[in-house]
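Posted in: Structural Biology > Protein-Ligand Complexes

Title: Requesting predicted complex, FE2/S2 (inorganic) cluster in pocket

I'd be grateful if someone could produce the 3D structure tokens for the following input. Sequence and ligand are given below.
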Amino acid sequence: MSVRRLAPDHVQPASFAFSAANENWADEQIAKYPEGRQASAVIPLLWKAQEQHHGWVPRAAIEAVAKKLAMAPIRVLEIATFYTMFNLQPVGEHYVQLCGTTPCALRGAEALKKVCEDVIGPQSTVSADGKLSWLEVECLGACCNAPMAQINFDYYEDLTPENFRALLDDLRHGRPTKPGPQVDRSGSEPLGGGETLKDKALYDGSMIGAGNWQKRITEQREAAIKVASEKAAAEAKAKAEAEAAAATGKAGPTDTKAAPAPEAAAPGRPKPSEVKQPASAAQDTPSATSKAIKDGGPKPAATAPAAKAPAAKTSAAKVSAAKVSAAKAPATRSAAAEVPAGKAPARAAQAPASTAETKPELLAAARNNAPDDLELIWGVGPKLAKMLNEMGVWHYDQIATWTQAELAWVDARLTGFKGRATRDDWISQSKKLATGWRPQSALGDKPVK
Ligand code: FES
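-- Reply #1 --
Done. Output follows.
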């Protein structure tokens, strides 16, 4: 460790003054601080004084800085003697600060000290030619490349007695040197290449129990997209079928354009395939279908008897369309609701009010990718939960807000479990679950009737 003491009188200059350029520079630094705070520029000014005076700060420079900043000389002396970057003794043209702290010591700094003593001489003395001086200092923060030394403003690392001796010789004779590591590496990477952090598992989350989370999330996303697209396709198909059935029903006995077989549209060419009308239409309008076949195809609307024109909207056709819609369309009303008052055929009029259905709001995927555990609803097992998810039901709060008509819509689509939603009162159960309440059993709490 350096001795923080001013150099002896015989090496101290009689006076010190900044050069004109440095005086201007000092004024610029002082101007950066508010009025009355000029003393804040003391360290930059001492640094500039050291640079101007061959790398060390004489007493005269300390006094000149104090005067310029209107400070007591002792205050500047305190600073100059505290910070080790200020050299209080003369230094060589190449000033070697050799790290002697533990990591560097363990890596051979002691041998380097001997080199300094051999090549330069004792610490804090300048070599006879004025080229070199050295000082042991504390850790300079390049321990990973120990041992090392700072020479003027450059670090020289991975030193050995041999390369250090050669380095000092180059400096003394003005030959170019290479700062940084003196071995075959460019920074502080391990010698010979990296040996750690090579395991790919470090980067896929498996080390912290996350498994292959990227693959899992990708699979979940793809599954959600698949479910949504299948659902959309099923809805589109159901809608198309419902529209086709409705069109067939409305066309009446004189219009077979909606028949599945295109040949059926050709007048005068009745084909057996025409009987392959949708089952509902065939059942609901048997006379109409058979009449179309018998008549040999469609007839122009203009030729249809006026009395028969309303037949395209017969009660039978209306009921047929309504039945298809209720069975296949995503959002339908009851057959009874479809039939105008006073025109309802006996069969539609008899439809019970309880069959009214409304499609509830459904989701393409669980919100935030965090579906509720629908199996906590009493009566819902893995199969029903899967069916609900495929339908677009993921959360308790979805079910909790259903109306009876929406409950009926869902109930009608629980293949193999029809009526289960109403029987087990899913709405009441879901209202409780949506509040955060949880049943003691994983099966849920059986609703009390
Ligand atoms: S111990 Fe030498 S640089 Fe840190």
